[in-house]
Design goal:
Chain A is mainly β. In chain A, about 10% of the residues lie in helices and about 50% in strands. Chain B has helices at about 1-15, 25-35, 60-65, 80-90, 140-155, 160-185, 200-205, 225-235, 250-260, 280-290, and strands at about 20, 40-45, 70, 100-105, 190-195, 210, 240-245, 260-265. Classes of the chains: A mainly beta, B alpha/beta.
Chain lengths: ~425, ~290
């Protein structure tokens, strides 16, 4: 008994002593600060990015550009989802105001950071992203809530001005559309306690995507319960000498409701399930901090399974249901050489290499020879301004008669950023 | 039973080595002098790299993931590479404002604070010049701050850290005297430098930096500015061009050729050139190369 009392007393004094030393150390550190008011303003970080280009577009068949499509992926003509200022597959000749991007970010408090990314087009104001991330979850977890670009694959979460080329590669545009997977939902990420970088993440998202997902029913087809889209991924990285390898595998699964019943031509709708599988691999070799070569590739496989409805003039607005199955895939591979802080050059090849579609088990006759090749040269007068010259040979477009119509495009792109200094990411 | 428990608590506290991530080599060396092998030090960059542009490799995320404390230079020097790494590490201990986030620039009086800033002035840091580690007089206060931070997080070794700090302080005060003596003859000397890396060092010893090879901070030299420099050098009797290791050397060589003055390659951090692996070696080399 005595022993216990003695130990308790000892512990108490120890604890007490500890507290006072601790307090004194903290006080001493605080007293040594000479710049405690530095950067203490409550103004969030604000930046504005402007992207304007001059595009010179020509087609093999100039007369057949009204109903361009990427068969099996993006159907052409009549409809326009792009009512928020995105150009259609034909593109716009001459000067293009691509976007102005407004970014506002700051810490909310000790527990959360907030970031908003707004796209301002000529006539619209879009919330590209607006999310809060946690700062203080235990066990190396981080949660994100709001509307954000998914971390599926490598390129999906990047903003357009961080692309190495003028636009997203063909495989992204064909399978995920202009915005990629950009949804409202919740993300949870975990960095593993390993020597090499390994990060695992899951996302629960509402699940509306112009090309692959959707939740709103039509006719007798029910709405889908939300969240509808589930995304998971695993990313890892290794340093090999001065080179770094970054790789990842991703998966996205959700229900699909695509309603094009109001289209003037080829009206149709689709309801079913879609699963995406992605794999990406990036290798960067640094001669020094701003002299590097990067090889980056990504592959996406899409499996769609469901029912297609084509109105046939009868009383039923959904007409004849057709069992539709799609197994499709595509990839891109790009090589970018950075000579110094000012000059960069690169080439990219993107192809849709699989386009197997069956309707009521019958294989459909769809082309599978769609590709785009691009080359670019960049001059960055400073970190905050960029001039880019790019050439695209787009051999993925078909006209209403089912004939290929190659598109050749030269783009001179101007990109400027003002405001808070954005850091570079890998 | 209670005794065993108490021991366990005490031991686990002693055995868990503090994981210290440091942004630059000089911070690593100061930390090592104070903590020796009581902590595990992880360096995020290299002394021969441009401190503004460290490649943000994912491997750095793993290093930060496991850190108990992150010691950085601050004053926006890491602005271009560190923030997204901290964010990706998902480590609450090293978030800004947390106990494990030590920004050294909070503890140093910064110089070259611009009255107003605009990007047309180049890449100017609004807080002031972040290269304060180039002043040997800043080593003692920085070492003390690091000692206090380590002690705060690892109180069991407070005595050890304090002892090492006191020893360093005594030694460094002697070094400062010897630097003062060595640098005396260079007082009033005029130099040009590539980037305003050495201002703190030069001002300390009364050396005047009259211009930079880059026309504006972070902007590459051009021929117009080089011609202006050549004239300035001739008119004002400039003695040296201070060249760092990571910028191109051509412009300095060209100007030297046209003016007949000397180019010296001077380290900007520990490990930038041979023989600078310690704080002492670093400042010895700096002093010797600028003033001999």
């Amino acid at each position: 008994m005595q022993k216990i009392i003695m130990i308790s007393a000892l512990t108490a004094t120890m604890l007490f002593a500890q507290e006072t030393t601790q307090e004194s150390l903290t006080q001493q550190l605080e007293d040594k600060k000479v710049n405690s008011t530095k950067g203490s303003s409550y103004m969030p970080d604000i930046s504005l990015i402007l992207d304007v280009s001059y595009n010179n577009i020509s087609f093999d068949e100039e007369g057949h550009t009204e109903h361009l499509e990427i068969p099996g992926f993006v159907h052409g003509g009549g409809h326009d989802h792009d009512d928020h200022g995105h150009t259609t597959l034909a593109g716009e000749d001459g000067f293009n105001f691509n976007y102005a991007e407004l970014v506002i970010a700051a810490s909310v408090d000790n527990y959360f950071d907030l970031k908003g990314v707004f796209h301002i087009n000529e006539y619209d104001f879009e919330v590209e992203e607006a999310f809060a991330t946690t700062r203080s979850l235990p066990y190396n977890l981080q949660a994100k809530i709001g509307k954000f670009k998914s971390d599926f694959g490598y390129l999906n979460h990047k903003h357009r001005h961080n692309y190495n080329f003028y636009e997203a590669p063909l495989v992204y545009l064909a399978i995920l559309g202009d915005h990629g997977i950009n949804e409202t939902g919740l993300q949870l990420q975990y960095v593993l306690p390993t020597e090499h970088y390994i990060m695992a993440g899951v996302e629960a998202l509402q699940g509306d995507n112009e090309r692959s997902y959707g939740t709103e029913g039509f006719g007798r087809v029910d709405d889908v319960d939300q969240p509808n889209l589930w995304v998971g991924y695993l990313k890892t990285s290794f340093d090999i000498g001065e080179g770094t390898l970054l790789g990842g595998v991703s998966m996205a699964k959700g229900k699909t409701r695509l309603n094009h019943l109001e289209d003037e031509e080829e009206a149709h709708a689709f309801a079913g399930d879609t699963t995406l599988y992605g794999a990406d691999l990036t290798y960067k070799y640094y001669f020094d901090a701003d002299h590097a070569i990067t090889w980056q590739s990504e592959y996406i496989y899409r499996k769609m399974d469901g029912t297609k409805y084509i109105p046939n003039g009868t009383e039923d607005p959904l007409g004849d249901p057709v069992a539709l199955k799609k197994k499709q895939s595509g990839y891109y591979s790009e090589l970018v050489y950075q000579h110094d802080r000012n000059w960069r050059a690169g080439v990219r090849y993107s192809e849709l290499n699989k386009n197997d579609i069956t309707a009521n088990i019958r294989p459909q006759d769809v082309p599978n020879d769609m590709y785009v090749t691009s080359a670019m040269l960049e001059y960055n007068p400073s970190e905050f301004s960029r001039l880019r010259l790019q050439y695209n040979h787009n051999s993925s477009l078909y006209d209403e008669e089912g004939d290929k119509n190659n598109k050749n495009e030269v783009v001179l792109q101007f990109n400027y950023a003002i405001g808070a200094h954005g850091a570079h990411t890998f | 039973m209670k005794i065993i428990l108490l021991f366990l608590v005490a031991f686990s506290a002693t055995f868990a080595k503090l994981n210290v991530s440091v942004a630059y080599p000089y911070i690593g060396q100061l930390t090592k002098m104070i903590a020796q092998d009581k902590v595990k030090i992880t360096l995020l960059s290299r002394g021969d790299w441009d401190p503004h542009y460290v490649v943000p490799k994912p491997s750095l995320v793993s290093k930060l993931r496991n850190a108990d404390v992150l010691i950085l230079n601050g004053a926006s020097l890491e602005m271009g590479w560190l923030p997204p790494l901290i964010n990706s590490a998902h480590n609450r201990k090293i978030q800004k404002g947390s106990n494990g986030y030590l920004d050294l620039s909070d503890y140093v009086k910064l110089q070259d604070i611009p009255k107003n800033v605009d990007r047309s002035m180049g890449h100017v840091h609004e807080e002031g010049n972040p290269h304060f580690a180039l002043d040997p007089y800043n080593m003692i206060p920085l070492a003390e701050v690091i000692m206090l931070k380590l002690s705060q997080l690892d109180e069991a070794n407070y005595g050890f850290y304090k002892k090492n700090y006191d020893r360093f302080k005594a030694h460094w005060q002697k070094k400062l005297k010897s630097y003062n003596a060595k640098m005396k003859k260079c007082k009033g000397m005029k130099v040009v430098q590539y980037h305003e890396l050495y201002n703190y060092f030069l001002r300390r010893y009364g050396i005047r930096s009259i211009d930079n090879l880059e026309p504006l901070p972070g902007i590459k030299p051009n021929s117009k500015h080089a011609l202006k420099l050549i004239n300035e050098i001739k008119e004002q009797d400039v003695k040296l061009i201070l060249q760092d290791v990571y910028h191109e050397h051509k412009t300095a060589k060209f100007i030297a050729q046209k003016t007949g003055i000397k180019v010296v390659e001077v380290p900007h951090d520990v490990g930038a050139v041979k023989g600078t692996q310690s704080i002492e070696g670093f400042f010895d080399t700096l002093v010797r190369r600028v003033c001999n």
